[in-house]
């Protein structure tokens, strides 16, 4: 089984005012975003059960352009009140980290897509490997199928 960190590069909770909690789930890429939203795991019933509130008070919003899901719900107690154990709501995401999600289906990223994703996020994890398309620092994926006679090279 997978966890949210297999799908998301960022999972956080925070205040959205003194009466509302908000959770942000920012996915690694388009593939993981689609897998997460298609699985339907982040739904009203889940949050209603975890945070003891009515599911009609929970708002789940998918943001496809941001590759993110946002969930908002009423705080268990008003921010700063004597029963508030997490004033900034920064630890409310913890129960979600143990969720068992379906294994993430593997997608074969094209070299062009991997370069685009890397440039968009400005990530560079060190010296470049070389793929059949040239220097390529996007480690952990495979380029598209090699041409005839070429050997498949991890990048």
How does the SSE layout of this entry go?
Elements: H1 4-7, E1 8-15, E2 20-27, H2 30-39, H3 44-51, E3 59-63, E4 68-74, H4 111-121, E5 129-131, E6 134-136
Key phrases:
155 residues; alpha+beta; 4 helices; 22% strand; elongated
Q: How would you characterize this protein structure?
A:
- This protein is of the alpha+beta class and 155 residues long.
- Helices cover 21% and strands 22% of the residues.
- The chain has four helices and six strands, in the order αββααββαββ.
- The protein has a four-stranded antiparallel sheet. Strands 5-6 form a two-stranded antiparallel sheet.
- β1 (8-15) and β2 form a beta hairpin.
- The longest helix is centred in the C-terminal third of the chain and has 11 residues, at 111-121.
- The model is unreliable at 121-148 (pLDDT under 50).
Q: H/E order of the elements?
A: HEEHHEEHEE
Low-pLDDT regions = 121-148
Write down the overall geometry. elongated
Number of helices: 4
- What distance separates the N and C termini? 26 Å
How many whole angstroms does the radius of gyration measure? 19 Å
């Amino acid at each position: 089984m997978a966890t949210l960190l297999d799908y998301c590069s960022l999972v956080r909770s925070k205040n959205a005012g003194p009466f509302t909690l908000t959770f942000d789930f920012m996915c690694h890429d388009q593939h993981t975003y689609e897998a997460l939203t298609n699985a339907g795991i982040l739904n009203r019933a889940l949050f209603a059960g975890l945070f003891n509130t009515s599911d009609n008070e929970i708002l789940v919003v998918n943001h496809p352009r941001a590759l993110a899901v946002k969930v908002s719900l009423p705080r268990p107690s008003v921010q700063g009140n004597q029963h508030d154990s997490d004033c900034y709501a920064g630890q409310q995401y913890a129960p979600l980290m143990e969720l068992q999600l379906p294994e993430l289906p593997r997608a074969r990223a094209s070299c062009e897509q991997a370069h685009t994703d890397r440039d968009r996020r400005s990530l560079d994890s060190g010296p470049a490997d070389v793929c059949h398309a040239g220097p390529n620092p996007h480690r952990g994926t495979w380029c598209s199928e090699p041409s005839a006679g070429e050997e498949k090279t991890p990048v």
